[in-house]
Specification:
Helix 2 packs antiparallel against helix 3. The chain is mainly β. The strands form four sheets. Strands 1-3-2-12 form a four-stranded mixed sheet, with no helix packed on it. Strands 4-5-6-7 form a four-stranded antiparallel sheet, with no helix packed on it. The protein has three helices and 15 strands. The chain folds into two domains: 188 residues, no CATH class; 82 residues, Fusion Protein Consisting Of Minor Coat Protein, Glycine Rich Linker, Tola, And A His Tag, Chain: A, Domain 2 (2-Layer Sandwich), CATH 3.30.1150. The two termini are 36 Å apart.
């Protein structure tokens, strides 16, 4: 299994701030000035090309302020959003971003863009807001990368797509690169409001840490070496529903409270997490 970590600083939380250039007035901004979400979450991508191993790619997204879209010298914000349909299965290619123009500690939402913001400009004198260029990355050679441009539409009081350029998919140019085909699935992880599918990696790490704590705390010089098998079951809110501690009767009263204290990330889906752990408690 190959594990890679890819961090895409991918979303900004924006709010429109007044233009401060000499002789310029602030653009009229839609809606109230609201707190800008400071969200951070991840997407785990599992890629399988038919072999025995699966490659896992972890993409991290956060609210960012890298581009000034109203020319006042204050970076504005792009807030990452999962897709609307089945958000738990959002892939990086489906990521959207809410755009805010910053005004002090709050911001005005001025629309939504698809893809990763790459540049802004020039500013339209009629609206006081710049064109936003984005790039949509792809996950496989069968998909086409996109370069998009967005301009602010006064009629809808929001950014709207004004042009797009679709690149040729890599599989069309080099078919041999796509044989065998790669199958991918995506899982949202750590979102502040949307429950993800059970995060098996996070649960395994929690069980591993609890087992190490039990090995340290539950040693006893007058007891023989024992192996404990621990089987927790979880409610969707992340709390423990049941716990079985087997094969270590002399240390069960010491081991059980350590595992009962574990809380996992809230989860959703048809299949509950079924991870268990087995470990040996040696003599001191």
């Amino acid at each position: 299994m190959v594990v890679q970590r890819i961090v895409l600083w991918g979303s900004l939380a924006l709010a429109l701030a007044p233009l401060q250039g000499a002789g310029q007035s602030s653009p009229a901004l839609p809606g109230p000035c609201v707190p800008i979400p400071a969200d951070s979450w991840e997407i785990m991508v599992f890629r399988d090309n038919g072999s025995a191993s699966t490659t896992r790619l972890r993409y991290a997204f956060t609210t960012e302020r890298d581009h000034d879209i109203d020319g006042d010298g204050t970076p504005d914000a792009f807030v990452p959003l999962p897709r609307e349909r089945v958000p738990q299965s959002t892939c990086p290619v489906g990521l959207r971003r809410d755009v805010y123009v910053v005004r002090g500690s709050c911001g005005h939402r001025v629309g939504q863009v698809h893809g990763r913001p790459t540049s802004v400009g020039p500013i339209d004198p009629a609206t006081g807001l710049a064109t936003i260029a984005t790039h949509v990355d792809v996950m496989s050679g069968g998909e086409a990368e996109l370069d998009l441009r967005y301009t602010f539409d006064p009629a809808s009081a929001a950014y709207a797509e004004s042009s797009r350029h679709e690149h040729r998919a890599r599989c069309l140019v080099h078919p041999a690169d796509c044989d065998p085909p790669i199958h991918s699935r995506c899982e949202l992880r750590g979102h502040p409001t949307i429950r993800s599918y059970p995060d098996s990696d996070a649960i395994s790490a929690l069980l591993h840490d609890a087992a190490r704590e039990a090995q340290s705390r539950c040693k006893a010089p007058n007891l023989p070496v024992e192996r404990c098998d621990v089987e927790p079951r979880w409610r969707p809110n992340g709390t423990l529903r049941s716990l079985r501690v087997r094969d270590c009767p002399r240390r069960r009263r010491c081991v059980a409270p350590i595992f009962r204290a574990i809380r996992i990330p809230p989860w959703t889906g048809r299949y509950e997490p079924l991870q268990s752990t087995s470990f040996q408690i040696p003599r001191p």
